[in-house]
Amino acid sequence: MSVAIVTGASRGLGRALAGELAAEGWDLVLSARGATALEEAAAGLERAEGVRVVAVAGDVSSAAHRAALVAAARGLGGLDLLVNNAGVLGAEPLVPLAVQPVAGLREAFEVNVLGPLGLVQEGLPLLRASAAGAVLNISSDAAVVPYATWGAYGATKAAVDLMSAVLAVEEPELRVWWADPGSMRTRMMAAAEPGEDLAGLPAPEEVAPVLLRLRTQDLPSGRYTAEGLAGSPAGGGTR
Q1: CB under 8 Å, gap of 24 or more: what pairs does 62-67 form?
Q2: How far apart are the first and last CA of the chain?
Q3: Which residues face 54 on adjacent strands?
Q4: Treating both helix axes as pointing N-terminal to C-terminal, what angle do 151-170 and 102-109 enclose, rounded to 10 degrees?
Q5: Domain 3-226 adopts which CATH fold?
Q6: Alpha-carbon distance 143 to 162, whole Å?
Q7: Long-range contacts of the stretch 155-158 (C-beta < 8 A, 24+)
Q8: What is the sign, positive or negative, of the torsion defined by CA atoms of 1, 214, 127, 113?
Q9: DSSP string covering 189-209
Q10: Distant-in-sequence, close-in-space partners of 126: CB < 8 Å, separation ≥ 6
Q11: Where are the beta strands (DSSP E) in the chain?
């Protein structure tokens, strides 16, 4: 039975990715800060899909929490896929760099960059032991396009992109994907730009199966977009 760790899994894209994996028979270790919402998500997946789901509430910036996630995966039999999805904006709503709170930027780097790196380091022995070990780091178009007010968040995602590319070189036996899901109808997007109309954006449940084509099609390590994976023409930046 395949085992995945999914962070930021109580809602939004993380919850949708967990749901898709559970429907395919994956056992899961789920992480999020909010224990109640996380446990509800885990229980719902266990009932609906009949898979084993372990909920471990905590913050990915915590080394103890990361160790607990990997220990839970080991208890389920190993680790085949690590999905680094948890993230914070650094300011809500987003603000120009001239007034970006330094504390918020620090938190964003702790959660969005150091958390994923720490989880990769903690999980590498299990990922290397898997017949098909893979890491999926959730990126953003803000990592490559200079959108006003997205500078702090985009900086963390640019760091994740480069870190992922280096990991792919250093761990050639693993699949390492860094993927931009595009703008979605999520609570995070609403918090980022409260005045924006999100009605025309896709729901995370529409995007998750597209991103997981990386796994089902065993695509090479690299940077991908949901738009590209869906077969749409490239271009027209999303974040």
Answers
A1: 63/118, 65/31, 66/115, 66/118, 66/119, 66/122, 67/122
A2: 34
A3: 29
A4: 20
A5: Rossmann fold (3.40.50)
A6: 10
A7: 155/105, 156/87, 156/90, 156/108, 156/109, 156/112, 156/113, 157/112
A8: negative
A9: HHHHSTTS--TTSPPHHHHHH
A10: 70, 73, 74, 78, 79, 133
A11: 3-7, 27-32, 53-57, 81-84, 134-138, 175-180, 222-225
* Tens digit of each residue's pLDDT (9 = 90 or more) over 77-127: 999 999 999 999 999 999 999 999 999 999 999 999 999 999 999 999 999
CB 90, CB 108: distance < 8 Å:
yes
Strand order across the beta sheet in which 222-225 lies: 53-57, 27-32, 3-7, 81-84, 134-138, 175-180, 222-225
pLDDT tens digits for range 4-25: 999 999 999 999 999 999 999 9
| Per-domain residue ranges of the chain | 3-226
Predicted confidence band at 238 (pLDDT cuts at 50, 70, 90)? very low
The two structure tokens encoding residue 149: 């007010």
pLDDT of 139: 98
pLDDT of 235: 34
Residue 237, pLDDT above cutoff 60: no
* 40, 50, 117, 227 from 7: Cα distances, Å: 15, 20, 13, 23
Q: From CA 74, how far away is CA 90, in angstroms rounded?
A: 32
Report the alpha-carbon distance of residue 43 to residue 108 in Å, rounded: 29
* Cβ count near 232 (within 10 Å): 13
**Cβ(86)–Cβ(115) under 8 Å?**
yes
Q: What is the rounded average pLDDT for all residues in the chain? A: 95
What pTM was computed for the model? 0.95
CA neighbor of 18 nearest in space, from 45, 57, 37: 45
